[in-house]
Design goal:
The protein is of the alpha+beta class and 457 residues long. The chain is built from 19 helices and 10 strands. A hairpin with a 7-residue loop joins strand 9 and strand 10.
């Protein structure tokens, strides 16, 4: 009967975007300053939210840091705080984020385990990027002939870096790359691509029905796409600047206190969010009001309270996940936190994901744009994840640890003569670390240390 009528009955599995899940994913990715701005923006339009900003808020810390920096070139007797008691324990390591996009990406590239040819081509692409993080319509033209065969792998490597969306040809492709990085795929990604390519004018005009028809989806799906779109940025490279607009504020602290390695979460930069109980009581009273005005007022308060609760839950979930990640890192990188960077062990995000019970992509989001305060300085959390370098013994050397050992070897060289890459390779071999001459040259470049043909330090 169904066949005669031309009907086809089939079962399909469809992944729908959950707005709450997307908001939680976005919150995991945000730095403390970005999260603070998100909370303050929400509070401007949500009367049920109460913010208890601390006396030493991020803004005041930033301003006092900049004032002190402007009064001195590099070092002076002036301090941005009047006393040790007034200064938070992490502010000593607080540093201005003067790093530009290309330098940041080259450092991240150095943490990847790539063939030399691919790494070289990726470096060329990064150097050729514009300030938005884009490569233009023809990235192959940016490479010399000997690097062009490695374009595909180099592009893949560049596009895996943070911030997500760099390496695209333009802002539309950047949005799609960010969507893929956040787990969108299949029909969902195809529909989102169609939205970005053809429906932005309708989106600006609020023509939800027209968009739904063009995409072949329900209006609720369009609303979810809009929520998701707001989590992306069309120009990912612009978050990097060459001034002191942004300061590196550590999210976590792992330090030895009274002989015990101690983990703590830095909450100083995030306002304490509370829901005004008087509005909750008002909502309960309005539920008894059967007038049109009463129902509308009750609905308004219900939505605002739900929004505030959702944001508070997102912040709590972010803090909980960060602490779980920090606890794992404290255990697995214990030698690093006690003895310093040369004791950093090889570690993958997949290992961390298995240990704390989340997806690897969640660990990547947690590590993005966040820093950890240690007894040896403030480091990007991403730096604690590094591939393993071969060794002749039982030692587990990470790539970043080997780079730190190379730095120490060069800084400790007091012979008056520059150390060749081969000499450093031989010195590493004496420590049981296998690193070929070309590998040493690559690490020196990533460390931005003079080559062996330059004058010794």
């Amino acid at each position: 009967m169904n066949q005669r009528l031309g009907l086809d009955i089939s079962m399909q599995q469809q992944l729908r975007i959950n707005a709450q899940l997307l908001q939680t994913m976005e919150t995991l990715t945000l730095s403390s300053q970005e999260l603070k701005e998100k909370v303050e923006k929400e509070a401007e339009t949500n009367p049920v939210m109460i913010l208890h900003d601390k006396e030493d808020s991020y803004d005041s810390l930033s301003q006092r840091y900049r004032n002190a920096t402007e009064r001195k070139d590099s070092y002076s007797d002036s301090e941005p705080y009047d006393s040790d008691e007034e200064r938070p324990n992490w502010i000593e390591g607080m540093v201005g984020e003067k790093e530009d996009l290309k330098k940041h990406l080259l450092k991240e590239l150095g943490m990847l385990s790539l063939p030399d040819n691919v790494s070289k081509a990726a470096s060329t692409l990064i150097t050729a990027m514009d300030r938005n993080g884009f490569l233009g319509p023809d990235p192959e033209s940016l490479l010399p002939d000997d690097e062009k065969p490695f374009l595909a792998d180099a592009l893949k490597a560049v596009r895996s870096l943070e911030p997500s969306g760099v390496g695209a040809s333009d802002w539309k492709e950047s949005l799609l790359l960010q969507a893929e990085a956040k787990g969108m795929k299949g029909d969902e990604l195809r529909q989102f691509r169609l939205l970005v390519d053809t429906q932005l004018d309708n989106l600006r005009s609020g023509k939800t029905d027209a968009i739904a028809k063009a995409l072949g989806v329900e209006k609720e799906d369009v609303d979810a796409f809009v929520v998701f779109l707001k989590t992306l940025t069309p120009f990912p490279g612009r978050e990097y600047s060459s001034d002191y607009d942004n300061l590196v504020v550590p999210e976590l602290s792992i330090k030895t206190i009274d002989g015990v390695l101690t983990l703590s979460l830095n909450r100083d930069a995030i306002p304490l969010l509370e829901i005004d109980s008087s509005y909750e009581r008002m909502q309960e009273e309005l539920r008894k009001d059967k007038t049109q005005e009463g129902r509308e007022a009750a609905k308004y308060l219900r939505e605002k309270i739900a929004s505030a609760v959702s944001l508070k839950n997102q912040i709590d979930a972010r803090s909980s996940a960060l602490l779980r990640l920090g606890s794992f890192l404290m255990e697995r990188q214990r030698d690093f936190f006690i003895s310093g960077p040369v004791f950093l062990k090889a570690l993958t995000m997949n290992e961390a994901a298995d240990a704390i019970g989340v997806h690897e992509a969640t660990v990547s989001r947690l590590a993005a744009s966040k820093y950890i305060d240690t007894d040896f300085g403030i480091y990007p959390i991403r730096m604690l994840f590094s591939s393993q370098v071969s060794s002749s013994g039982d030692e587990n050397y990470s790539k970043n640890a080997v780079k730190e050992i190379i730095r120490q070897i060069i800084e400790d060289n007091d012979t008056g003569k520059a150390l060749s890459d081969q000499k450093i390779s031989d010195m590493l071999a004496e420590r049981g670390i296998k690193a070929a001459r070309r590998t040493v040259a690559k690490y020196r470049k990533e460390l931005d240390i003079d080559s062996s043909f330059d004058r010794a330090r």
